[in-house]
Amino acid sequence: MPRPAVIVWEALKHVFSKKATIDYPFEEGVKPLVGLRGAHVLYIDLCTGCRACERACPPLAIVMVPSELTKTKKRPVINLGQCIFCGLCEDACRYDALFLTDYIELSAFQQQEMIIYETEDPKDLTYSEGTEPKEEDS
Amino acid sequence: MVDKKKIKVGSPQTGCSSCMPNTFEIPLGPQHPALKEPTHFLLEVEGEIIVNATPRIGYVHRGIEKLAETKTYSANLTLVERVCGICSHIHSISLANAAEGALALEGFEVPMRAQYIRTIVAELERIHSHILWLGVAAHEIGFDTLFMLSWRDRELTMDLLEDISGNRVNYAMNEIGGSRRDMNQSQIDRMLKYMDITIERMERYKDICLNENTIRMRTQEVGILLPQKARELCAVGPTARASGVAIDVRYDDPYSAYGEFRDIFNVVTYDSNDVFSLVVVRIIETIEACIYIKWMLKNIPDGPIFKKAPRKVPEAQILSRTEAPRGELIHYLWSNNTNKPYRLKITTPTLSNINTVSEMMKGDYLADSTITLASIDPCFSCEDRMITVVNNDRRKAKVETWSESQLRKYSNDWHTANKRWKK
C-alpha cells in the first residue's frame, strides 16, 4: 500500500540535505591524501637501468631503451596507455628511482602522448609540474 | 489471464515448435538494451508467456587461462583480477590461495594480518557488488530513484577501497605470501564510521524493499526457482540461498580469515524462491558483511603483512574454492616447479547459474525476462569459454550416449583412416 507520510517525509529530508555529487571539471575531485596510484615519476639520477621494473611489469608497459645517463646504458620508457597501475614496478625498484604519484588526469588526444620519458631531453626526464612527488610519500 | 501454474507444470512438448504450433521464437541478445555484455537467449513464447529458454554463451572469450601460462605468479595475480570488473579481488585471493597451498607443502605460511586485510577487502568488495546489483535491478524494474540512491551509498565503499589500495576497481592488493599494503589507524577508524553509515542506509533499503509495492509487484512470484531445481542445476551463491539452499563456501570451507569468526557467521537464506527473495538475500548479506568487517577491524592482529615466498612453486594440483559476491568461484592450478603455472582453469559463478535462468524464465511474462536475467547478477565475460557448436539447429540435434567400447572403436577407426595425421 502507498505510504504518503513516508513519501512526504523523504521528499522534505532530501530538499534540505547536502548535494551528493561534485561539479567535477570546475571543482576539485575527491582523492585520498596518500597512496593513490597515478602516473609515474622517474628520477634518472638514481636509476641504474637494472631492468627490475621491466621484468616486474605484468602488461609489458615498460621497455628499456639505450641511454647514456645510467650505469648499464639503459633506461625505462613507460607507456601509460598499457599501464594497469598495479605498482609492481615501484615495489621492484631497489633505488627508489621510479614511483607512482597522485597525478591521475591522464587523458590525451594521441597514443604517442601516453608514452612518457621517451626522449632523452633532461627537461622531460625531470618531473614536470603536477607530477611533483612529495618526499614523505616515497 | 493465463494461469501461470498450468504452463509451468508443462507438457513434454514444450521446446518443440513443431508440436506446439502457437509458439514463436524470440532472440534475446547478443545485442540487447537490457544486457551489459553479449549473450544469447532463445525464448520460445506462447502469447506473452515464455515456455522455454535456451542460453548460448561464447561471444566474449578472451583466453585469459591460456595467457596465464606465459606469466609469473605475481603478474598472474594482476591478470586474473581482470577476469571480472566487479569481483576482481576475490579472483586474486583464489589464485594466491592455490599457489600458497602448493607452497604449504614445503612449510610456507602466510601471516595472519595479511589474511585479515585480504578478507576485509573481499568483504568491502562484496558490499559494493551487492549495492551495485541492487541499483541495476531497480533500474531494470523502472525504479530509478532507488538506483541513484543506492549508487550514491556505494561511493562510500568505493572511497574506502581507493583509500586502502590506491585504485578504485582492480586493487592489486595481493602478493604470493601476503598483502602489499598495510592499514593504519586512521583508515580503520574511517572504515568503522562508514560501515555504520552503510548499515543504517541498507536497513532503510531493506524497509523499502519489504514494504513498498513498487518492488514487490515486479519481483514477487517472478522467476521462481524451487529448492529441488536449484540443487539439480547446481546453483551457487545468492541464487541458491534465495531458494533456501544453505550453501556458502565462507562457512562450509573457510579460507583466509573466515575461520576466525565462524561462530558469528550467518548463512542468509530466504524461502520465497523468487526474485524478491534474491533482493532480500543480497540486502541482508550486505548488512552481514558490514558486521564481519567491523568484527575483523576490532580483532585484527599485529605482525608482518608479507612473507617472502620462493619464486618457484612446487609441483602440485590445487583446487581453490572461494565465495565471490555472485557465488562459488573455483580456481584449479597445476604447478610444475617453475615460476609460471602449467595450467590454470577458472570456473566462475555465472557459469553455474546460467542454466537456472532458463528454468526461472519458464512460465513468466516476456516483460519479466530482463529482471529474471539480471537477478542472478550475470557476468558473461567472466564465464565465457570456447565452445564448438556441432549442430547449428539445436532443436533437431541428435543426442547419443556412447559406451567405452564404442568410443575405442571410433578412435581406432579414426586413426586407421588418418594414419599420417601428425604430418
Description:
The complex is a heterodimer of chains A (138) and B (423). By secondary structure, chain A is of the alpha+beta class. Chain A has a domain at 32-125: Alpha-Beta Plaits (2-Layer Sandwich). Chain A has four helices and five strands; from the N terminus they run αβαββαββα. In chain A, the strands form two sheets. Chain A has a three-stranded antiparallel β-sheet with strand order 2-3-5, with no helix packed on it. A two-stranded antiparallel sheet of chain A has the order 1-4. Chain A is elongated, with a radius of gyration of 22 Å. Chain A starts with a helix and ends in a 13-residue tail after the last helix. The model of chain A is unreliable at 127-138 (pLDDT under 50). Chain B folds into two domains: 4-60 and 354-417, no CATH class; 64-351, Cytochrome-c3 Hydrogenase, chain B, CATH 1.10.645. Mean pLDDT of chain B is 88; it is low at 1-17. In chain B, β2 (40-46) and β3 form a beta hairpin. With 423 residues, chain B is mostly helical. In chain B, α7 packs across α8 (213-219). The A-B interface holds A 1-3, 20, 30-32, 35-37, 56-58, 84-88, 91, 100 and B 71, 74-76, 78-79, 82, 152, 155, 159, 162-163, 165-167, 170, 172, 180-181, 211-213.
